[in-house]
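Margin note: ligand = pyridoxal-5'-phosphate.
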Amino acid sequence: MSRIANTFKALKEANRKALIPYITAGDPHPDLTVSMMHALVDSGADMIELGIPFSDPMADGPTIQRASERALAHHVGLSHVFNMVKTFREKDTQTPIILMGYANPIEAIGAETFVERAKVSDVDGIITVDYPPEECTQFTKLLKEKNIDSIFLLSPTSELDRVKLIIEQASGFLYYVSLKGVTGAANIDIEQVKSKVSMIRELTDLPIGVGFGVKDAATAKEVAKISDAVVVGSRMIQEIENSNKDNLIQNISKLMKELREAVN
Amino acid sequence: MQPYDMPDEKGHFGQFGGVFVAETLIEALDELRIMYEKYRHDPDFLKELHYDLKHFVGRPSPIYHAKRWSDRVGGAQIYLKREDLNHTGAHKVNNTVGQALLAKRMGKPRIIAETGAGQHGVATATISARLGLECVVYMGSEDVKRQAPNVYRMKLLGATVVPVESGSKTLKDALNEAMRDWVTNISTTFYIIGTVAGPHPYPMMVRDFNSVVGVECKSQMNEMLGRQPDVVLACVGGGSNAMGIFYPYIDLPDVRLIGVEAAGHGIETGKHAAPLTANSPIGVLHGNRTYLMQNEEGQIIETHSISAGLDYPGVGPEHAWLKDIKRAEYVAVTDTEALDAFHSLCLTEGIIPALESSHALAYAEKLAKTMKPDQVILVNLSGRGDKDINTVAKISNITL
Ligand SMILES: Cc1ncc(COP(=O)(O)O)c(C=O)c1O
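Resulting structure:
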């Protein structure tokens, strides 16, 4: 069983929901990423979603775009991202790490090399935002061979057939995008999320995570009631933007704890 | 020979094209694909389209024999397909009229578009005004500065122009931002992409709407000369004017098709916008797989061209395919060469060409010299240069 599946199993037995913070690798500085990851775990993160910086993050709102730009200003690319995961693993062999990014940086080094290096660095899951299942069957197969989970997005506009198609390819968990829009956008409609999540639940045993519009502890709490995992991205990045080198770890830890308390 | 029939059902031109977007856009693209399939051969739709192309755009555009210029250059005869004479001054309007009429049939009251030079933005604002649709145009803040007259034209036409400050602040970033708007406002909004890029069905649909250019050329050349040209030339940014004139000629193997990219300061300097000529690696951007200017980490790099409309790091997937199957050839000319051709056409023929089109003219000049006087080069004069006079004046150290 994969590390992600194990984590969900353990959480279920403890009757708890997963909390997954998102940060972009290299934001605000590559030297800080690994200690930020440990701090998030210490403050209640069950898994970590680590963004691969990209010059053209089409599905991201302004907050995560800025995170990508800050990381790129330090020339952070895939080789750094893999090294960060490796370094993280020196102290933490439990917490699943999910890389989230866009297709082009992956294709630039080649899918096979990417999967090879992800395995060596002990990455657990991959979300490739602009790889719908039809366009990445080979990539999904490579990941599967290495026992790395392929995590796909589902959207409010995905209809039944589409959801079924995605479930067939997916492993680890399903990532339901809670609103029509980019990351960090407006308010989410909990009732709508609820009805879509229950529709998906009838079709699969995979855990369902919800993300894209979780902007505070109160929303996290509501979302946790109707899903298996809550992803917090733009809110986390905002905290990073509002911090300086000296209080960064303290601030993101505090936010993480607040979210944890709300979700428990 | 099998007639050319691309793309496949999923929008692939061989390994190029496709649908590389976040899941949130899939349903909207499916809807668009289905509606386009429904209307592309629908007699009522086509009647409405052809009426507008004739009475609103002013089609057919003439072909003009640039005799004095051909003589001056020495060599082949150069003919110009006068897309500069269209309403709004470029080929872009052929596509915007088509897509806007489709938007109307789909009941979408709001139109969005990205623009580089501003020609596509102006064409979109124009047809939106005519159809009473709300129009929002995304434009990189660098281009807003470079193309001030077009920004004002869009505003006069009632459009909202949103300057885009992210990334390199040019066309590619405007496209990103338009996509973000679209995901957010999917149910009310139709996204009119301005070139043969983006996810399927855009590359095919934009090509189809622009292919009126090549279709007209075939019958006009026949009328004028009783034969087809030896070479068809067009500039390539995303590649819509080139696909428009190439497409009807693909099945005529004796006609050479040549796309001219922007070499900027020179291919060897790295400061250009010529992914095909420079043999850039294959990658994924804006919903399709194609040749793409990028660094080793797969980050898209900044492009350089004197002409905002060619300043794009990728190229339509069908051009990538035509290059690979060797049906079309791709070359590039520098800023300086394009400027020289610009002035040359102004002075010998009384036509002010767009800087984009001037790239095709510059290559026509080079090629004509190697050909015989009874041979024919047909150049797609994709637009007029009124929008570029500030840029050209500035380079000549003249304040207007
Ligand atoms: C006059 C003109 N020609 C050519 C282009 C380049 O676009 P494409 O390569 O899609 O024809 C533009 C783009 O703005 C344009 O305005």
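Residues 248-263 of chain A form the longest helix (16 residues).
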